[in-house]
Amino acid sequence: NDRQVANIRDGEFVPFLADDGTMDGEVLQVNGGKTGYELHIYRMLPGQHTIPHKHLGDEEFVLIEGDLRDHDGYVYKPGDIVCLKSGTEHYSISEKGCLLVVYLPGAEGY
Questions:
Q1: Is the pLDDT of residue 78 over 80?
Q2: How far apart are alpha carbons 85 and 96 in whole angstroms?
């Protein structure tokens, strides 16, 4: 099939696992690539924080809904489109949960 469709309201989110196997959010994607890479929808649950990490390629995201704050105190607002350059080290926190559209380069080299 040349078309794959999933909806953020009723699509099946799967756990996004960090290298150590810890759950680091949930992901909805249709591209068939490595979970959490290329274009995907990323959901953080209320009270969740991501695992501190360093980007090995530019990460781009749009905050669709909810709240998101980076470890340095920067607060993102719904509708913000963000690019974190390769080499950026950070982690993020969501007190009430959030939903993002994320693009990470392919998993090759990660």
A1: yes
A2: 26
